[in-house]
Write a structure and sequence with these properties.
A hairpin with a 2-residue loop joins strand 1 and strand 2. About 3% of the residues have low confidence. Among the domains are: 62 residues, Laminin, CATH 2.10.25; 47 residues, no CATH class; 35 residues, Ribbon (Laminin), CATH 2.10.25. It has 245 residues and is an alpha+beta fold. The chain is 12% helix and 24% strand. Strands 1-2 form a two-stranded antiparallel sheet. Strands 3-4 form a two-stranded antiparallel ribbon. The chain has a two-stranded antiparallel ribbon with strand order 5-6.
């Protein structure tokens, strides 16, 4: 084994062969094959290689815990901090990349954590992109799922449950071609209403227009008689035209 490969920036006293390569046994809250960065939960910007100075013992330059007083640690999302005297903390100011929090370690409302990215990655927070009409608000949970309104479904609330149709959001169907069938020859129009034949009424055209009313039969008979008379007049007129020719 070639121990010359063991270069650990003075953050390890030995190396071991792991996962097919020689890797440092890191100390001082550092990590990586050559101990080139701080562990999770420790300040990324506080990493420095160990030093032989001051003599005779040198300095390990241990990674500081995130959130401790001292250096301004914002995971690269801000370069300004402010000291709040009455609660004795240092907090980041004007966090960028859609982050927030004392150390810019949380995502703004309307964004969620990209679990595949490190805290110091510019893409650590992903926009929720909730559908404005299908969801209650622009916020989502830690996995990016939005809170949907009644009838809406999907990670972003952009689809409708069965029995609902999209009309500026998901609305219950009044009629359809499967369960809520229009009756008595009616036709379902865009799942919003049944277009009934002249003699029927109701949400699903389920009632006669004059059902239970006096004169209903007479009115229907008069309607039929009038239609028959008009048909006869039209037929006679056509017959005269043909005879004249």
């Amino acid at each position: 084994m070639n121990m010359a490969r063991c270069k650990c920036n003075l953050h390890a006293g030995q190396c071991t062969f792991r996962e097919g390569s020689l890797q440092c046994d890191c100390e001082h809250n550092s990590t990586g094959q050559d101990c080139t960065r701080c562990e999770r939960g420790f300040k990324a910007k506080s990493w420095k290689p160990g030093s032989y100075l001051p003599t005779p013992n040198g300095s390990p330059n241990t990674c500081d815990a995130a959130g401790t007083l001292g250096n301004c640690e914002c995971y690269g999302h801000s370069n300004r901090c402010s000291y709040i005297d009455f609660i004795n903390i240092v907090t980041c100011v004007s966090c960028k990349h859609n982050t927030r929090g004392q150390n810019c370690q949380h995502c703004r409302l309307g964004y969620f954590r990209n679990v595949s990215a490190e805290l110091d990655d510019e893409n650590v927070c992903i926009e929720c992109n909730c559908n404005q009409l299908g969801s209650f608000h622009a916020r989502c949970n830690d996995t990016g799922f939005c809170q949907c309104r009644d009838g809406s479904i999907g990670p972003k609330c952009e689809d409708c449950l069965p029995g609902y149709s999209w009309r500026q959001g998901c609305s219950p169907n009044v009629c359809d071609d499967e369960f809520l069938l229009c009756q008595n020859g009616g036709t379902c129009f865009q799942n919003q209403k049944c277009l009934c034949l002249p003699e029927y009424k109701g949400v699903l055209c389920e009632q006669l227009l004059c059902e239970g009313e006096r004169g209903c039969s007479g009115a229907s008979a008069s309607y039929v008689s009038l239609a028959a008379m008009l048909s006869c007049l039209l037929a006679n007129a056509l017959l005269r035209i043909v005879t004249a020719c």
